[in-house]
Design goal:
single chain, globular, 3-stranded antiparallel beta sheet, 70 residues
């Protein structure tokens, strides 16, 4: 799984990878924290991308808390 940010709601606009876990096989919720700075002011979108073998299609994401500092 990886997490991206971009300036539009489509995969082409997701230009900056924020986080990646290539071996994600957790059976319980896990907490991760990632800090980042956007390159300029504007609206940004967060995209979640998950790859898995066939019939392994469940991923549960809970409590995404963006904290903005100006």
């Amino acid at each position: 799984m990886n997490v991206w940010i971009g300036n539009a709601q489509n995969e082409v606009a997701m230009t900056t990878m924020l986080w990646e876990d290539a071996a994600m096989k957790h059976t319980v919720y896990r907490m991760d924290t990632k800090s980042f700075t956007v390159p300029s002011t504007g609206t940004y979108y967060i995209g979640f991308h998950m790859q898995s073998p066939p019939n392994y299609y469940h991923v549960f994401i809970d409590d995404v808390h963006p904290i903005c500092t100006w």
